[in-house]
Structure formats: structure tokens, C-alpha cells
Amino acid sequence: MNLARTVLITGGNRGIGYSIAQEYVALGHRVAVSARTGQGPKGSLTVIADVTDPESLDRAISEVEAKLGPIEILVANAGITKDTLLMRMSDEEFESVIDTNLNGVFRVIKRASKSMIKAKFGRIVLIGSVVGLLGSAGQVNYSASKSALVGLARSITRELGARGITANVVAPGFINTDMTAELPEAQQLEYKKSIPLGRFAEAEEVAKVVTWLTSDDASYISGAVIPVDGGLGMGH
């Protein structure tokens, strides 16, 4: 039986992050979500934070630990996209995506891992993407930020593994969210043709992999990239 743990999910107010938070709540964990706006699911604590603002993270993590106890599981999910072709992409469009999706992950891990090191226990999951290793035209900023999470997780594994802390990347493919629902039907069909399983994933299918990866069943997995992409990124 897995113990109830204190969990923090960044960007847990919508999409995949919201589903991950719901899954942890359903499993009986003490769950906090950080968000710039909005709320996490029922049964979770929402703290307002922006991963690009170090002071807001300090406040949010202090609040989580004061109310729920030291953070034991961190799911770094907050991310943004600013898609456009390389030749049209401004420096700001590149740098802001890196600042949220990579620098923001570093800032959260650095702060949340203090309690893990003290407790000699921790589970860190970084939400990557199939395009991190497969690549995607029009997404050099996003794919670079997601690819970098692999090196981050593997370096953390080498640095903190002996202290009972694991770090892994979950790399989703196309997920049924508000964003994909807005795509024209012809485009959705085109994308589905490239996915061996022939469909988009449900957010819960990602959430269940994340919660399993932080459970006792997966305690010897670290530095891994777990694809949840219907076979889209095979070989990567």
C-alpha cells in the first residue's frame, strides 16, 4: 500500500495538470497545485505562483509545506507555447518559452527538492513532450525546452539518486484537450494518421502513468523517458 504523500503539481488548473491533480486526489494524497489563475480540482489546495517569478514560488512552496507538510512528490507540468516558423520567431518568443518550460522547471525543483533531500525521499516527474525528441516544424522553442528536460532529469538522478530521489520525464503525444478540440477536423484526421494507435490520448491516460511513476511500484525507475504517445515517437 502506498503511503499518502504531499504532492505539488505546477500548472494544475487545466488540461493535463488538472487531470494529474484529480488522479492524486482520488488516490488519497495531499495535493497542491500552483497556477497563475484559476483553481485546481476539488480536494486540492491551489496556490498562486508563476514559475518565472522566484519570489512567488518561494511564497507558494512555503504555503504548501505549512498547510500540507513537506513536498514529497513534484510534478513539473506548467508550460507555454509560442509556435511559429524559425525565420519568423522573435528572440522574445524563443526566450519566454525557455524561461517558463525549462528555467521555470529548474526554479521549482531547486526549491521543492530541499524537503526531499532532508527526508531522503522524493519523486520528481517532468512533463515533457513527444516533440522534445521527435522535433516539430514551427516549435523550435517548445521542442528545445522539452528536450532539455531529459538532461535535467538524468543529471538530477546522478546527483540525488543516492538520497532516495528519482527524476523521470513523461512525454505525452497528442492529448484530447481544449487546444486539440479547436483544430480543424481535417487537421485532426491528418495527425491521427501519423499515430500508430490512430487516436489522441485522454488526459487521464497521462495522469495514470504519472501517478504510477511516483508510486512504490516504480521506485527503481529514474532518468527514464516514458512516452505516452500512441507510438508516435517510437525509436526516440
UniProtKB/TrEMBL annotation:
Residues 5-178 form the Ketoreductase domain. InterPro entries: KR_dom (IPR057326), NAD(P)-bd_dom_sf (IPR036291), SDR_fam (IPR002347). It holds the Pfam family adh_short_C2. SUPFAM superfamilies: NAD(P)-binding Rossmann-fold domains. Keywords: Oxidoreductase. GO terms for molecular function: oxidoreductase activity, acting on the CH-OH group of donors, NAD or NADP as acceptor. Belongs to the short-chain dehydrogenases/reductases (SDR) family. NCBIfam families: PRK12826.1-2. This is Unannotated protein. The lineage of its organism: unclassified sequences, metagenomes, ecological metagenomes.
